[in-house]
Each structure stands twice: as C-alpha cells, then as structure tokens.
Specification:
The protein is α+β, with helices and mostly antiparallel strands and 261 residues long. The protein is built from 8 helices and 14 strands. The chain has helices spanning 9-19, 26-30, 43-59, 90-94, 166-177, 189-197, 211-223, 252-259, and strands at 32-36, 39-42, 64-67, 81-88, 101-108, 111-119, 124-129, 134-136, 139-140, 153-156, 182-184, 203-209, 227-229, 242-247. A 7-stranded mixed β-sheet has the order 3-4-5-6-7-8-9, sandwiched between helices. The chain has a 5-stranded mixed β-sheet with strand order 11-10-12-14-13, sandwiched between helices. A two-stranded antiparallel sheet has the order 1-2. It is globular, with a radius of gyration of 17 Å. It starts with 8 loop residues before the first helix and ends with a helix. The structure holds D-MYO-inositol-1-phosphate and calcium ion (2 copies).
C-alpha cells in the first residue's frame, strides 16, 4: 500500500502549526551559527526540525526523514521520504522580516505526493496532494491567468551563497526586469512557489536550489495549474539540487527564452 494512503493530512498540518510556535522565540532566532557565506542557521531552525522529525518518526516510523539541518547521505529515494525545510527564509527570520515558513513534502515512488508550506506570521497554510488540487487555508487556489509578460510580476532568487554566479544571475534578472511589469526578491523559495500557486506572482526563478527549498512548492504550483522546470524546460526532481523556473504556465516558454538570452 502507498504510504500516502496512511497519512493523516490534518494531523500533519497540526504538527507543522504547533512547531511553528518556535518561530516566535526571538532569543532563539537571534542565536545564529554561520554555515557558510550568507548561509545561517538559528536555534529556531534546529528546534523546528527536531520537533517535526520526532513527531513524524513516532507516527510514521517507516517513512525516512530528510531535513536541511542534518546529514542526508543515507536517504534512499526508492523508498518514501519526508523532505523538510524547518525554516525557509532564515535570513528573513533573523531580520524580523516576516516572509519565512516551514516547508514539508512527502516523496514516494519518485514523485512529490503531498506538499505543505506554512507561514506562521500570516497564518497561511498552502497544501496540495497529488491529483487533488492546491489549497490556501482550505480554499482552492489557482495560478494567475496572465499570458502577457509585460503584465507579470516576477520574483527572482539571487543565489546568495554563490557569489561566483552573480554575473550570470544578475544578467538573467536584468533581462527579465526589462520585459515584465516588475520584479520582487522575497527571500523564501518555498513562499515564492506558494505565491505563484495563489496568483500573487506569475513566475519565480533561482539557480541551484536545494531539495527542501522546492519539494513541497513544486507540487503546490503544479496542482494550482502552474509549471515547474529547470531553466531549459526539463522536468525537475528533489533528489538533488536544481535550477528552478516556476510559472503560471502561460508565460513559461517565454521565460525560458528570456533566461537563456
Ligand atoms: C534560502 C531561501 C532563499 C534562497 C536560498 C535558499 P534558507 O533558504 O529560500 O530565498 O535564495 O537559495 O537557500 O537557507 O533560508 O532555508
Ligand atoms: Ca530553504
Ligand atoms: Ca532552511
């Protein structure tokens, strides 16, 4: 039997929401360790991961657990796995900029079969189940039906940990900026994907995202009628890092052309 059939979605949502209480611990958010250039982890990231991992393991002992703040070298993608980003948007959390979230996906049979993204500051829970549609706080959501790039609002990622990519990244950003209504830099890949799904943004792109940044969001966008590929239009997988282009689908082909100019 598929593990998806054994999962109680309401319970997962309540586990995520209860762990998100930890986001409000300002002292923990200010306790920062530097993992790499512009790459931070706070006590909140560690505590959220520990709490969710423990509760998922107790309830679903047969599902593996992959999380940003642990060694994932033993993960076998032929078997079911939770993929967690305990805080997506840690830099925002440190700066009290309330665009950050918990992102959790369930990956089974080499497909994301469920995705959850929760922003505790706005109390917004984005959820999708494979072939079951996408929802924001229980209400169905859909991408914005805009096919004219000039009317589109596009979010950009800066690949903050890899300054050697800056010329490439900002060349792409400039080319996109010159064709669209305007651009945004939100600083949480998972929320940027969720915002495409509910029509706040028309597209988002960033090179070299990690599996936990986009696993839940790629399903939520697809279930809301959008499209997620790499910069060449190839399908993506959360089994390894990927360049991500997500859109409302209508502008996808044109975005690929602009990104490859
Ligand atoms: C980061 C955020 C950021 C993106 C980085 C991600 P983190 O995740 O999503 O917007 O530019 O590539 O790594 O480190 O806050 O979990
Ligand atoms: Ca992240
Ligand atoms: Ca993170």
């Amino acid at each position: 039997m598929s593990v998806l059939q054994t999962v109680d979605f309401d319970e997962i949502i309540s586990i995520i929401k209860s762990a998100s209480g930890l986001f409000h611990n300002e002292e923990a958010a200010e306790n920062v360790t530097i993992k790499g250039r512009a790459d931070f982890v706070t006590e909140v990231d560690l505590a959220v991961q520990k709490t969710i991992c423990k509760r998922l393991a107790a309830k679903y002992p047969d599902i593996q657990f992959m999380g940003e703040e642990k060694d994932n070298s033993d993960i076998d993608f032929d078997k079911a796995v939770w993929i967690l980003d305990p805080v997506d948007g840690t830099t925002n959390l440190i700066h009290h900029y309330q665009e950050n979230c918990i992102s959790l996906a369930l990956y089974e049979c080499h497909r994301v079969v469920a995705g959850f993204i929760y922003n505790p500051w706005h109390d917004e829970l984005f959820f999708a189940k494979k072939n079951g549609g996408a929802f924001l706080n229980g209400e169905p959501i859909h991408v914005r039906e805009c096919s004219d790039l000039a009317d589109c609002l596009i979010s950009v990622g800066t690949a903050p940990y890899s300054h050697e990519r800056a010329d490439f990244v900002f060349h792409q950003i400039k080319n996109v900026f010159l064709r669209v209504a305007d651009i945004r830099r939100i600083g949480s890949a998972a929320l940027e994907l969720a915002y495409i799904a509910c029509g706040r943004l028309d597209a988002y792109f960033e090179p070299n995202l990690k599996p936990w940044d986009f696993a839940a969001g790629m399903l939520i966008v697809a279930e809301a009628g959008g499209k997620v590929t790499d910069f060449e239009g190839n399908p993506i997988t959360p089994e390894h890092p990927q360049d991500i282009l997500a859109s409302n689908d209508r502008i996808h082909r044109e975005m690929i052309e602009v990104l490859n100019q």
